[in-house]
């Protein structure tokens, strides 16, 4: 029982840091290694840790599966949405130059937006995969 | 809007895929999927017309010019293949509404239609892209969704079939990635046109032939050319009917397109046929596929399985056409790609109707169906006639060109094999027809004709396979022009 | 410094074949997927090897006056995509394995064949 | 209506008739009346074409281009008109006969019967009027498929087996040989249009052209040159009107007509005469003539005997084509008409015997002539025509054929013709002789119920028998048309 | 120095790979696969591919391992002894490997700056990215902008994986539908999958499906 207490407290301390790290990876992706994909995986890892320590039931309460699916779908839509927006603004599909008066600013916004899309999708999908596998009760043979 | 058509063709259905997954209710998801499919169909028609009028269309993604960015490069071949894929999608989707609601549970409808859209947009993406790595990405989009859809079949063997497909498909994809890598290391580019320009300078290097080999083997796995076809019969047999109809008429066709694209655009016919002696490998395999797989088809007791083996044989026809390496040969390959999509789609959809009403597609269960399900079985006969290659059907047109291509090169034994293959088609189609028309139905079974929502799409394909068999000049001239584009002659 | 020459490629090829062998020779479905994973990881190594320039550094631009050699970023980009594709395939494959196990009670190819007969 | 449209209308009329049959399926009398009327109208319009032919015109109708350079087109020329006149005249006559037969025999599925019957006539007219090899092949195959439901009309195990043989042989020869020959011709000559004097001369070596000729002659399975004759006896399981019109006139004549047409308009007489293959094939036809007669000699079943007699007689026409001189062609063309009228009379009689006396075996027909004098008299007349004795039309065509062998210096073949006629003398005349002059066997069930066949059938028999005799005295129409065909221009 | 680390890591990878083949405890094999990914991530760092290394560590060693363990929890840990002598696979593998070695034998040597691969498109990115996109990490700029369309496809791939896995695994066992007496019926949960010849006769479930 003591182990679990340590585990829980450890996790409680660790999870905010993991989330923070994920955000760092997301937004520092322009300057160092990292980006939406890695950040998404780390985000998901935080929830996986939560679910492992506090049980799937509690994890599902914090983050209902439905929300996870929505994330998975939403990210793709964000990414493609950027493409449609650039198109509406008169550029080619995913031509970020048109997002701001200054092309390099436009590139920044665009990259930020699509990385966000990647983050949301990857996070959603990874947690959804975990839920799907962990949530399936073993049927004894 | 119209200058964005190339990307919208792919992006709209791809965007609608998550939408379909989100709407939740399966009927709504179906509507979203239908919108995506029909949009793709309309867009592909417009694209084909534009390509025919204006020539090759370029579209630079993100505004980055090739080779620095990814470009969509749509020539006649691409546009034609995209049209085939989109057309089949547009026909299958109304069919799927009834068929899938029965064969797959309704609560998975939303996800299913999402997967359907992903598969469609993946296949469309492959057919219009001008970047080799982009091919791989969209190949995986379509493949992953196809694996999942196949696994939804009611028989538990659908699961093993999907797994087998996944293993072989991923192996193929990995081979393709290796091939792309070897090309890249020698040229530094991933753009097809740029590759074509840079390859001749380095083609004496051992790396390029090996890259060629890996790409060929990888695509051949996806294509299910004998002897790498092992995944196909199970996958087609146990997948839900609508999925079989869609995958059978599109996935392998797009793989054939890839083969054409790599052989003729990227490597060039001279390299593929003179340096690599491609015809020496492909032609025997194609001939064995035609004869061997038709023979195996004759002995099948499950009609979907029978048609699946017939598909492997028909793929042999397409590859045979390509292996001639001549304009006429490639024309026949492209033409058969279109024609086979029509007829196999019709046949598999007819079998879906049987599955719907009878619950099985084993031959012995089809006794007397000619009387109780006249429209379904008439559609089967219609598609079957096309498979045999009777005049006024698309199958005849394919054979006309294929035999011509063989005779042009003085290979009359090859022409004979083509004919023997179609006679074997007669045997396996007739096997089904006899049971359906000459045996009495089991009076205990209350079998009704399939609903109109399934019959109409089936008949659309049957009639199309007659229409394009009677008036083949449009398709034939497009195919000829496409072949000329690929081989770089007559321009 | 050891001159690696083409050794790197060949070592990677050996690894690839280890994965490929596991993929096609083993009857256990999970083992097959592990093999696929190893195979794909090794392909990633092949690409990354192509992008390496001796004495170069990671392609993250630094503000400095002198000339810096950067390794080729393109293979890295491609392989990021490939890794994602790999894990996607793996996830789908594993879910199929779970369902196969439920339907057949085994994940061994031979036993499944026997079951199916 | 322009002449070209008239040609199309002639082919379309039977299809309209078929539709009428479907519409009127619940009113048997109206249904049959419709067939009769449409039949008469068809003949009337075909006859209308005669006038243009005599003027040297070649009415043509281009329907559409199926593949670039290959058209679906009709063109009327004298030889085709011979066939069309025969088929369209005998159609209403056979319908008349069928009314009596089908009702007298209480056959099921009469609507389907009359429907496919009309469709088959459309196919035969399509063959007759085809302007090129493609159109000919298309209608040839069409004819095969739409006669299949007629052959298997009874849907018994026996019918199923016969249907397999029928379809199997006709399709394997046409697809396996004929189609290759057509595409080869297209490859060499660049056209498949029927042209005066042929299109193949000078395009390839004599060996290749010989090979194509062999492919053509054996590829036309409907001409029943041995060893591809088995389908014809098998098809005899069909109701007798089918045997009468289709398997004595429309289908088999479509076969020999094709051979004649190919000889005249694809090879040309001059080229044909120079090919070594022509001689060998002529002997193959000669062998079929003798063997067919010998086998007919041994048959006790009347319809089977007539079938083998047909096989033998068909080879007369094939032989006429292969003699490669004007005599032979004229004789062959005239024999299309003469044999058609003679043989249909024989089949009508055989059917009448079946309906009235339920008798199939010749050995049990002793004495029947006394109760069915008209039928057996007609049989006698028909026999004379087939054997080639006056006063029946067949003597003319045989005369020309004989002259053809002399002209060609083929004395051996002349002996063959003589020998076969002698055999025919026995195996055909045996029937009326036994019927008129032998006493009925003691155990025969020729009870008091037996009388002549139903009136409509009897009328039909009388019409064809009288025509047979009339053609002896007035063979001018056929002779004139065939002379036009070989001379190639206006009279 | 790099060369030495390089070789050492490759040898380690080879050892791990062979161990994976030989290991018949799937749990151990999965762990070894995780180690394999981790070591390869190290190799990627050595070869300047820091982004790839990061991802490989997170995915290969992280997510993949979790998913595989999740699967093993459902399907069991033991691999059967192979029943066939793997002659054909061995042959295929040797041929494939042989072809690859042949193909690489004339390839540009490892790490040289004037290889064609470094001369064509990559320099453009390294030089122009600075003012076209203005972010230092060229991998990010290529990934998200120059080849942003690929990355969009990549998100679609993972989304496809989610759709596929949910189709297969969500909401308990797939309801089983069979054709019975002229219509399609859903079987009660727990019924067995049936082969088509017997499909018309739904049996009572015995709880294992």
Entry keywords:
heteropentamer; B: mainly alpha; C: 117 residues; mainly alpha; Helix Hairpins
Summarize the topology:
The complex is a heteropentamer of chains A (141), B (491), C (117), D (491) and E (209).
Chain A: H1 2-28, H2 36-54, H3 56-62, H4 65-88, H5 103-134
Chain B: H1 5-23, H2 26-54, E1 57-60, E2 71-74, H3 76-103, H4 109-128, H5 132-150, H6 157-187, H7 192-202, H8 207-223, H9 231-238, H10 241-267, H11 269-275, H12 278-298, H13 303-324, H14 327-358, H15 369-372, H16 374-388, H17 394-408, H18 412-438, H19 452-470, H20 473-487
Antiparallel strand pairs in B: 1-2
Helix pairs in contact in B: 1-2, 1-4, 2-3, 2-4, 3-4, 3-10, 3-14, 3-19, 4-5, 4-10, 5-6, 5-10, 6-7, 6-8, 6-9, 7-10, 8-10, 9-10, 9-13, 10-11, 10-13, 10-14, 12-13, 12-18, 13-14, 13-18, 14-16, 14-17, 14-19, 14-20, 16-18, 16-19, 17-18, 17-19
Chain C: H1 7-25, H2 29-51, H3 73-104, H4 109-116
Helix pairs in contact in C: 1-2, 2-3
Characterize the structure shown.
Chain A has helices spanning 2-28, 36-54, 56-62, 65-88, 103-134. By secondary structure, chain A is mainly α. Chain A has one domain. With 491 residues, chain B is mainly alpha-helical. Chain B is built from 20 helices and 2 strands. In chain B, strands 1-2 form a two-stranded antiparallel sheet. In chain B, helix 6 (157-187) packs across helix 7 (192-202), helix 10 packs across helix 11 (269-275) and helix 13 packs antiparallel against helix 14. Chain B is globular, with a radius of gyration of 21 Å. Chain C has one domain: Helix Hairpins (Orthogonal Bundle), CATH 1.10.287.3510. Chain C has 4 helices and no strands. In chain C, helix 1 runs antiparallel to helix 2 (29-51) and helix 2 (29-51) runs antiparallel to helix 3. The N and C termini of chain C lie far apart (60 Å). The mean pLDDT of chain C is 84.
């Amino acid at each position: 029982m003591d182990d679990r207490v340590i585990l829980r407290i450890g996790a409680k301390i660790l999870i905010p840091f993991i989330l923070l790290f994920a955000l760092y990876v997301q937004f520092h992706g322009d300057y160092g290694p990292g980006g939406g994909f890695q950040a998404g995986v780390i985000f998901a890892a935080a929830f996986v840790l939560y679910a492992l320590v506090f049980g799937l039931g509690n994890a599902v309460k914090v983050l209902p599966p439905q929300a996870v699916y929505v994330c998975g779908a939403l990210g793709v839509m964000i990414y493609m949405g950027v493409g449609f927006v650039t198109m509406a603004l008169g550029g080619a599909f995913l031509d970020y130059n048109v997002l701001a008066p200054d092309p390099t600013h436009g590139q920044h916004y665009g990259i930020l937006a699509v990385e966000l899309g990647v983050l949301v999708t990857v996070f959603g999908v990874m947690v959804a995969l975990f839920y799907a596998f962990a949530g399936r009760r073993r049927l004894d043979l | 809007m119209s200058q964005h058509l190339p990307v919208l063709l792919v992006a709209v259905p791809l965007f609608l895929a998550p939408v379909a997954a989100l709407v939740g209710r399966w009927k709504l998801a179906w509507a979203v999927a239908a919108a995506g499919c029909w949009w793709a169909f309309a867009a592909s028609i417009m694209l084909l017309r534009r390509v025919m009028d204006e020539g090759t269309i370029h579209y630079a993604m993100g505004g980055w010019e090739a080779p620095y960015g990814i470009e969509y490069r749509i020539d006649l071949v691409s546009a034609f293949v995209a049209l085939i894929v989109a057309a089949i999608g547009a026909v299958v989707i109304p069919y799927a509404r009834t068929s899938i609601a029965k064969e797959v549970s309704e609560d998975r409808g939303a996800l299913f239609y999402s997967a359907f859209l992903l598969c469609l947009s993946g296949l469309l993406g492959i057919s219009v892209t001008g970047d080799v790595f982009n091919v791989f990405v969209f190949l995986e989009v379509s493949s992953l969704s196809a694996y999942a859809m196949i696994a939804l079949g009611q028989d538990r063997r659908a699961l093993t079939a999907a797994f087998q497909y996944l293993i072989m498909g991923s192996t193929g994809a990995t081979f393709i990635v290796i091939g792309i890598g070897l090309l890249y290391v020698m040229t530094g580019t991933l753009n097809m046109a740029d590759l074509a320009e840079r390859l001749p300078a380095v083609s004496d290097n051992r790396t390029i032939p090996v890259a060629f080999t890996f790409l060929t083997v990888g695509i051949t796995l996806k294509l299910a050319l004998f002897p790498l076809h092992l995944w196909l019969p199970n996958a087609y047999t146990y997948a839900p009917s609508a999925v079989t109809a869609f995958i059978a008429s599109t996935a392998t066709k797009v793989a054939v397109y890839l083969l054409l694209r790599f052989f003729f655009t990227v490597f060039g016919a001279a390299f593929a046929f003179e340096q690599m002696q491609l015809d020496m490998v492909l032609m025997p395999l194609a001939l064995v596929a035609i004869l061997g797989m038709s023979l195996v088809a004759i002995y099948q007791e499950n009609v979907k399985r029978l048609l699946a083996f017939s598909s492997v044989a028909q793929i042999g026809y397409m590859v045979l056409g390509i292996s001639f390496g001549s304009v006429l040969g490639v024309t026949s390959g492209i033409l058969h790609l279109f024609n086979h999509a029509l007829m196999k789609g019709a046949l598999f959809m007819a079998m879906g109707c049987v599955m719907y009403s009878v619950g099985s597609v084993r031959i012995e269960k089809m006794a007397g169906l000619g009387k109780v399900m006249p429209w379904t079985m008439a559609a089967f006969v219609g598609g079957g006639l096309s498979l045999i290659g009777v005049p006024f059907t698309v199958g005849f047109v394919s054979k006309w060109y294929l035999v011509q291509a063989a005779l042009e090169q003085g290979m009359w034994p090859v022409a004979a094999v083509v004919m023997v293959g179609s006679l074997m088609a007669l045997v396996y189609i007739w096997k089904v027809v006899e049971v359906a028309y000459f045996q009495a139905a089991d009076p205990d079974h209350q079998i009704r004709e399939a609903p109109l929502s399934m019959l109409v799409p089936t008949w659309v394909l049957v009639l199309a396979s007659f229409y394009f068999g009677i008036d083949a000049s449009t398709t034939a001239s497009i195919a000829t022009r496409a072949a000329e584009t690929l081989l770089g002659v007559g321009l | 410094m050891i001159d690696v020459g083409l050794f790197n490629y060949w070592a990677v090829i050996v690894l690839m074949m280890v994965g490929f062998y596991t993929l096609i020779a083993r009857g256990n479905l999970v083992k097959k997927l592990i093999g696929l994973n190893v195979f794909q990881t090794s392909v990633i190594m092949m690409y990354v090897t192509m992008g390496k320039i001796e004495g170069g550094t990671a392609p993250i631009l630094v503000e400095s006056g002198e000339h810096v050699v950067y390794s080729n970023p393109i293979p890295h980009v491609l392989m990021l995509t490939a890794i994602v594709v790999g894990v996607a395939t793996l996830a789908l494959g594993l879910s199929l394995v779970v369902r196969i196990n439920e339907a057949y009670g085994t994940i061994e190819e031979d036993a499944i064949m026997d079951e199916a007969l | 209506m322009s002449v070209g449209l008239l040609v199309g209308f002639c082919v379309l009329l039977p299809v309209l008739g078929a539709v009428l049959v479907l519409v009127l399926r619940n009113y048997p009398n109206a249904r049959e009346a419709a067939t009769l009327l449409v039949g008469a109208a068809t003949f009337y319009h075909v006859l209308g074409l005669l006038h243009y032919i005599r003027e040297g015109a070649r009415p043509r109708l281009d329907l559409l281009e199926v593949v670039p350079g290959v058209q679906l087109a009709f063109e009327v020329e004298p030889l085709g008109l011979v066939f069309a006149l025969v088929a369209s005249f005998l159609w209403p006559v056979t319908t008349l006969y069928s009314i009596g037969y089908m009702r007298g025999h209480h056959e099921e599925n009469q609507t389907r019967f009359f429907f496919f019957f009309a469709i088959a006539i459309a196919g035969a007219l399509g063959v007759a009027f085809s302007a090129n090899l493609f159109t000919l092949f298309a209608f040839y195959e069409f004819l095969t498929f739409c006669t299949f439901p007629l052959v298997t009309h009874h849907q018994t195990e026996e019918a199923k087996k016969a249907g397999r043989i029928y379809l199997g042989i006709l399709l394997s020869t046409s697809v396996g040989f004929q189609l290759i020959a057509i595409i080869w011709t297209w490859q060499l000559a660049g056209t498949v249009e029927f042209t005066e004097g042929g299109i193949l001369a000078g395009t390839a070596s004599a060996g290749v052209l010989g090979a194509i000729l062999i492919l053509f002659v054996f590829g036309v399975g409907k001409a029943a040159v041995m060893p591809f004759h088995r389908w014809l006896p098998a098809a005899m399981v069909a109701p007798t009107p089918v045997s009468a019109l289709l398997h004595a006139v429309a289908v088999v004549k479509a076969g020999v007509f094709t051979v004649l047409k190919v000889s005249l308009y694809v090879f040309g007489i001059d080229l044909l005469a120079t090919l070594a293959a022509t001689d060998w094939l002529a002997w193959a036809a000669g062998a079929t003539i003798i063997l067919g007669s010998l086998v007919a000699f041994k048959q006790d079943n009347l319809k089977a005997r007539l079938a083998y007699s047909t096989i033998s007689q068909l080879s007369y026409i094939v032989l006429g084509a292969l003699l490669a001189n004007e005599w032979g062609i004229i004789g062959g063309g005239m024999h299309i008409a003469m044999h058609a009228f003679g043989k249909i009379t024989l089949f009508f009689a055989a059917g009448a015997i079946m309906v009235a006396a339920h008798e199939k075996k010749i050995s049990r027909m002793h004495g029947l002539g006394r109760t069915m004098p008209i039928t057996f008299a007609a049989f006698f007349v028909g026999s004379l025509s087939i054997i080639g004795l006056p006063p029946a039309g067949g003597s003319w065509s045989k005369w020309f054929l004989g002259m053809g062998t002399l002209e060609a210096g083929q004395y051996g073949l002349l002996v063959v013709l003589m020998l076969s006629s002698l055999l025919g003398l026995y195996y055909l005349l045996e029937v009326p002789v036994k019927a008129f002059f032998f006493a009925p066997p003691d155990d025969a069930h020729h009870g008091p119920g037996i009388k002549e066949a139903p009136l409509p059938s009897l009328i039909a028999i009388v019409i064809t028998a009288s025509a047979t005799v009339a053609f002896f005295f007035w063979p001018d129409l056929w002779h004139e048309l065939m002379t036009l065909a070989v001379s190639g221009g206006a009279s | 120095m790099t060369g030495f680390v390089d070789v050492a890591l490759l040898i380690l990878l080879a050892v791990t790979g062979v161990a994976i083949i030989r290991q018949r405890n799937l749990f151990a094999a999965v762990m070894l696969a995780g180690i394999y990914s981790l070591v390869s991530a190290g190799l990627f760092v050595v070869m300047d591919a820091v982004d790839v290394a990061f991802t490989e560590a997170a995915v290969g060693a992280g997510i993949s391992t979790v998913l595989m363990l999740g699967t093993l929890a459902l399907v069991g840990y033991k691999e059967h002894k192979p029943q066939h002598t793997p002659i054909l696979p061995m042959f295929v593998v040797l041929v494939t490997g042989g072809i690859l070695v042949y193909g690489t034998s004339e390839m540009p040597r490892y790490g040289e700056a004037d290889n064609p691969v470094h001369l064509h498109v990559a320099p453009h990115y390294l030089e122009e990215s600075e003012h076209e996109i203005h972010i230092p990490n060229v991998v990010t700029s290529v990934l998200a902008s120059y080849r942003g369309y690929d990355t969009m496809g990549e998100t679609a791939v993972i989304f496809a994986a989610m759709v596929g896995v949910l189709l297969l695994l969500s909401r308990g066992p797939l309801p089983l539908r069979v054709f019975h007496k002229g219509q399609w019926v859903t079987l009660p949960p727990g019924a067995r999958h049936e082969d088509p010849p017997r499909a018309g006769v739904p049996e009572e479930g015995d709880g294992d499906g």
